[in-house]
Write a structure and sequence with these properties.
With 250 residues, the protein is mainly α. It has helices spanning 2-8, 22-31, 35-50, 59-82, 89-97, 106-119, 126-135, 144-160, 205-215, 218-236, 246-249, and strands spanning 17-18, 170-176, 183-189, 192-198, 241-242. It folds into 3 domains: 2-97, no CATH class; 107-136, no CATH class; 139-231. The strands form 2 sheets. The chain has a 3-stranded mixed beta sheet with strand order 2-4-3, with helices on one face. The longest helix is centred in the first third of the chain and has 24 residues, at 59-82.
C-alpha cells in the first residue's frame, strides 16, 4: 500500500480510495520518493514474493500470493508509463489489469450484424431500426433509481442463498448529473459503498441491469471486499485500499 501511495503522488487518479493509517498517506505526500526509487522497491518486493514456495500454502494464501505478484507487476508498469514508456493497447491492458481484449475477425461482426438485421423489424437502415427498437426499452429518468434499487435488492436476496454477506454492509444509491461517466462506485470502508448513477444518460432496462452487475451487485463486491478486509486486517487493522487493480479482483 505504501508503494501505491507513493506512485499516487505522481498520478492523482491512481489511488481511488484509501482507508489506511493517515500517517502513511501524509508520509507519501511529504517525502515524494523519486519514481526510480519506487520502481526499485517494487522490483525487490516482487523478487521476495517470487521466492516464496507456494507448496506449503493453503488455497487462500496461494491466491493472495498470486494476487500480490500481479499487483506489483501492475505498479511497475504504471511507473514505467509515468516515466514515458509507451505500450500497445493489449500490452498495456495485460500489464496493468492482467486482461486482454479478444481479437475477432471482421466476419464475426458481420455475422452479428446479419443476425440483428433479421431480428429487428424492417423500416430503414439497421442503425435507424435498432435505435427505434432501443427506444422502447428506455427507463424514464425518474424511475432509474427505484428500478436500480429494486434490482439490487433482488440481487442481494439471491446472493444470500449462496454467500454470507458482511453484517451491516450497504450500498447507497445517488442520482447525479453533468458527469463524464454513466455510473461510478466508491468503497467508503466498513462494508459501506456509494453508487452514483448519471441520469443524463438514457438507460435501457438491460443497460441499467448491466450497470448493476458492474457497480452494485453484492455477489461481486462483497466477497472481494470481505477477502481483502480479512487479509489487510492482519496488517493495518481492517484498512482497505481500492485502486485500478479492482478489475482483476473482480
Amino acid at each position: 500500500m505504501k508503494l501505491v501511495l507513493a506512485v499516487g503522488q505522481y498520478d492523482p487518479e491512481y489511488v481511488d480510495s484509501y482507508f489506511g493509517p493517515p500517517e502513511w498517506q501524509e508520509q507519501a505526500a511529504t517525502r515524494k520518493v523519486p519514481l526510480g526509487d519506487i520502481r526499485l522497491q517494487v522490483v525487490r518486493t516482487s523478487e521476495e514474493f517470487a521466492a516464496i514456495n507456494p507448496s506449503g500454502l493453503g488455497e487462500m494464501e496461494k491466491l493472495r500470493l498470486r494476487f500480490m505478484g500481479k499487483q506489483l507487476d501492475s505498479v511497475k508498469t504504471r511507473i514505467d508509463m509515468l516515466a514515458g514508456i509507451k505500450m500497445k493497447f493489449n500490452e498495456e491492458s495485460a500489464a496493468l489489469f492482467d486482461a486482454v481484449a479478444p481479437d475477432y475477425p471482421d466476419a464475426h461482426f458481420e455475422a452479428q450484424l446479419a443476425r440483428a438485421d433479421a431480428l429487428i423489424p424492417r423500416a430503414g437502415t439497421l442503425r435507424e431500426r435498432y435505435e427505434k427498437f432501443r427506444q422502447r426499452f428506455l427507463v424514464p429518468k425518474e424511475k432509474v433509481e427505484p428500478v436500480f434499487r429494486a434490482a439490487m435488492q433482488e440481487a442481494r436476496q439471491r446472493t444470500r442463498r449462496h454467500i454470507q454477506l458482511p453484517e451491516g454492509e450497504n450500498i447507497r444509491i445517488e442520482c447525479v448529473t453533468e458527469k463524464p461517466w454513466p455510473a461510478s462506485s466508491r468503497c467508503q470502508g466498513n462494508g459501506q459503498s456509494v453508487v452514483q448513477l448519471n441520469t443524463d444518460v438514457p438507460y435501457t432496462i438491460d443497460e441499467l441491469l448491466n450497470m448493476l452487475a458492474m457497480r452494485g451487485i453484492q455477489g461481486i463486491t462483497s466477497p472481494t471486499c470481505s477477502r481483502m478486509t480479512v487479509w489487510l486486517g492482519n496488517v493495518v487493522g481492517g484498512s482497505l485500499v481500492s485502486s485500478p487493480f479492482i478489475l482483476r479482483a473482480r
